[in-house]
Design goal:
Elements lengths: L1 H22 L3 H6 L2 H34 L5 H13 L2 H11 L5 H24 L5 H8 L4 H12 L1 H16 L3 H7 L6 H10 L4 H36 L10 H28 L6 H5 L13 H35 L4 H16 L2 H11 L13 H23 L3 H9 L4 H30 L2 H6 L7 H9 L4 H28 L8
Helix pairs in contact: 1-12, 1-15, 1-17, 3-6, 3-9, 3-13, 4-6, 4-13, 4-23, 5-6, 5-10, 5-13, 6-9, 6-10, 7-8, 9-12, 11-12, 13-23, 15-16, 15-18, 15-20, 15-22, 16-18, 18-20, 19-20, 20-23, 22-23
Length: 516
């Protein structure tokens, strides 16, 4: 199977190589015996837990707004909350550095929460919209207050979605790279940034590999919790059936929750608006400077060349990811409709999701360790960046297409086959029209994610083929007002592309963007 072969070569092999390197020369034992390691682990887990808690608290009111109300502007809310999730990490880091110039723990927690409100809101809203409101109404009729009815009836019913969302958010926050790199500086480091530091600056490959192994254990644990919660949520959705009808808020508590949700949505706009406004502080100087190489030739390519590199790499990565993701989704659906045991299908699904959770920095590091053994030494090839980006995007494509393909009524396919249609024609006439919108959504969503990918790309992009996010990070690392102006202008361009892509996703259809 092509997707599994791609996964084996460009994911499993590099990660296994990192594991072996981590065990070599006593790397793991030395790292585990160091007090500095456990301080890194404590800070990584602590900031991820705080960010997750804040994202859940902010996302719940927004989920209520999306799932249970019919107030005007819900489509705009979907766009606004999704933009932060797909913004490049360097853009978010720079936006919060503008708001909180000193950075620090508070800035890191706020920025990671900002990223992940959409995960909580859309995942929980997907289940909440299917809950039968009569159970809460019955509790109210028995004398329970609105708050008591929510905590005793609604909240337990939402537990599978909340657990699923919290596990994914924790995973994203624990492996956050660009945000911590920009806002933490030299004072605050996570496992992710320490792996990067040891590899790029200290050349401590065995120590970096050992830290990657420690992080990998935590990632697998979080993925396991997320997969279990997702299965519980899917079971709950199947039991509850069709979505309930949204209605206007009733009562003071409902209007208060809607007000809080709108306040959260407004706050999500603030960092983006501030960053774009900052890009015009010198008029159009930053945008004009993109034609050059920055203060004292900080870049080896111009800003516009870096943008072109980003566009080319994202295009190649998206094409590859959509092909691989579509093939994988079709195979998984075919196996689930056949006689293959459900456990086998679920295991394959989980394996295909692994790149979504494993550190992009670890994967990029693994490429540097392994890919010289392939013909042509891919480590020096410009194709390596799109390959790494496709590895990140492919699981997202699968998560978007798989639920839609599974929802297709098998009787339609059987009827087409009984009339003489070949399997290819059944796919073309039945499956494609149903999944077409989701496929377009996958293309747009995957493209913008690839465009802003930073973790693996920062390892793999050569100075003369730097992408725009990598160029922004290099500009910020060097002194000079011109570099700052260029960085803000480049981030504003990435924001514009992201907003346009998200708006297109929402205009194509209102299906769930990613089924976490």
């Amino acid at each position: 199977m092509v997707p599994l072969g791609f996964l084996a070569v460009f994911f499993v092999w590099p990660v296994v190589a990192i594991v072996r390197l981590g065990f070599g020369e006593g790397g793991v034992l030395a790292v585990l015996g160091s007090a500095d390691t456990w301080q890194l682990v404590a800070f990584t887990v602590g900031q991820a837990a705080a960010s997750t808690a804040l994202a859940v608290l902010a996302g719940l009111p927004v989920a209520y707004l999306l799932a249970r109300t019919s107030v005007p502007g819900r489509g705009l809310v979907r766009v606004v909350i999704l933009v932060p999730f797909v913004l490049p990490t360097v853009v978010v880091g720079l936006a919060f550095r503008t708001l909180l110039p000193d950075g620090g723990v508070l800035a890191i927690v706020l920025a990671n929460s900002f990223f992940n409100v959409a995960v909580v809101a859309r995942t929980v809203a997907g289940l909440w919209s299917h809950l039968d409101g009569r159970a809460a109404d019955a509790a109210r009729s028995l004398g329970a207050s609105p708050l008591r009815a929510f905590t005793s009836v609604t909240l337990p019913a939402l537990a599978p979605a909340l657990t699923s969302a919290a596990a994914v958010v924790f995973l994203f926050c624990a492996t956050s790279f660009g945000v911590v790199l920009i806002l933490g500086g030299s004072r605050y480091r996570t496992l992710e940034t320490e792996i990067y530091l040891r590899t790029v600056e200290l050349l401590d490959l065995s120590g970096a590999a050992a830290l990657s192994l420690v992080q990998l254990v935590a990632v697998v644990a979080a993925l396991s919790v997320g997969a279990l919660a997702r299965r519980r949520r899917e079971s709950a959705l199947r039991l509850r059936g069709r979505a309930s009808v949204a209605r206007r808020p009733r009562g003071a508590l409902s209007w208060t929750v809607v007000g809080v949700a709108l306040a959260v949505v407004t706050l999500l706009l603030v960092p983006v608006v501030v960053l774009v406004a900052r890009s015009f502080d010198g008029g159009l100087a930053g945008y004009r400077a993109l034609a050059g190489f920055g203060h004292e030739e900080s870049l080896q390519v111009s800003g516009w060349e870096a943008a072109a590199n980003s566009l080319r790499a994202a295009t190649d990565a998206t094409v590859l990811a959509v092909v691989l993701g579509t093939l994988a989704s079709v195979v998984l659906v075919s196996l689930s409709r056949g006689r293959t045991r459900r456990g086998v299908v679920e295991t394959m699904d989980t394996v295909l999701m692994l790149p979504l959770g494993v550190s992009a920095v670890t994967v990029g590091f693994g490429y540097l360790v392994t890919l010289d053994l392939l013909p042509g030494d891919l480590r020096t090839s410009p194709a390596l960046v799109p390959l790494a980006q496709a590895l990140v995007v492919t699981p997202l494509v699968i998560r978007m297409l798989l639920p839609v393909l599974r929802s297709i009524d098998t009787r339609l396919r059987q009827a087409a086959a009984s009339l003489g249609a070949s399997p290819w024609r059944v796919w073309r006439e039945v499956d494609v029209p149903v999944a077409g919108r989701s496929l377009l959504t996958a293309v747009a969503f995957g493209y913008v994610v690839a465009l802003g990918e930073f973790g693996a790309t920062s390892f793999l992009a050569r100075p003369d083929t730097a992408t725009l996010p990598v160029a922004v990070a290099r500009l910020l690392a060097r002194p000079g007002e011109l570099n700052n102006q260029m960085a803000y202008a480049a981030c504003a361009l990435l924001v514009a592309v992201t907003v346009a892509a998200v708006a297109m996703v929402e205009s194509v259809g209102r299906s769930r963007v990613v089924e976490f």
